[in-house]
Design goal:
216 residues; alpha+beta; 6 helices
């Protein structure tokens, strides 16, 4: 096992230009968009995949899962899910959450802390109607995060919902829709040789972004 891990060691060969405090954009969304486009144009795949971490207020335990960023609107990060899922219930109790984007070929990651709230229902309706029909049926059939006896039970639920709607239009279930995370802090991490990484932080203060550098 240790030998296998040794093979994964990476000294983070220099990628691009150093991040200097005197040439950074004043708005973190501008830097996010630059890095996102560079990741999209590079070798990384599914660059909109993000690890979303939430907190269970009762157990104080964190939970994480991969979600997909669908858009950035009004300086917030939008994704869609089942409101009754584990993450949905945890967001309802504690809207503070963290999103992490990781692009290994770029040797970059971005940590985003913020507050989450539901988006406008009409916007959720619009996105739901654009999804494949099978995904629409799945949103009705699955009681996300609840235990189930077998996969067959899930397939039976899917078939039942499919039969119920027939060829008619499938409406968005009220338990499914969009969330928007509004950031109050960013950390942009750029890998560097000898673990001398860049860690640039944007912290919201009085409607302004304060830029600070952290030790690697």
């Amino acid at each position: 096992m240790n030998k296998a891990l040794d093979n994964l060691k990476n000294d983070h060969s220099d990628f691009g230009k150093n991040i200097l405090l005197d040439n950074l954009p004043s708005n973190p969304f501008e830097l996010f968009n630059i890095w996102f486009e560079q990741a999209h144009e590079g070798e990384d795949i599914e660059v909109n995949a993000s690890c979303l971490s939430t907190i269970n207020n009762k157990t104080k335990q964190p939970s994480s899962r991969i979600i997909y960023l669908k858009e950035i609107e009004s300086n917030s990060f939008v994704f869609y899910t089942n409101y009754n899922s584990q993450k949905g219930r945890e967001i309802e109790d504690n809207p503070n959450a963290c999103m992490l984007f990781f692009w290994p070929h770029q040797q970059r990651q971005i940590i985003i802390n913020g507050n989450i709230e539901k988006i406008n229902p009409e916007k959720s309706d619009e996105y739901f109607s654009s999804r494949p029909r099978s995904s629409q049926i799945g949103a009705w059939a699955s009681k996300q995060s609840e235990f189930i006896n077998s996969r067959e039970d899930l397939l039976n639920s899917f078939n039942l919902i499919e039969k119920q709607f027939g060829n008619s239009e499938i409406p968005r279930p009220l338990h499914w829709g969009g969330y928007a995370l509004s950031p109050y802090a960013f950390e942009f991490w750029q890998g560097r040789p000898s673990r001398f990484h860049d860690r640039i932080n944007y912290i919201s203060s009085d409607d302004k972004w304060i830029i600070k550098r952290k030790n690697p």
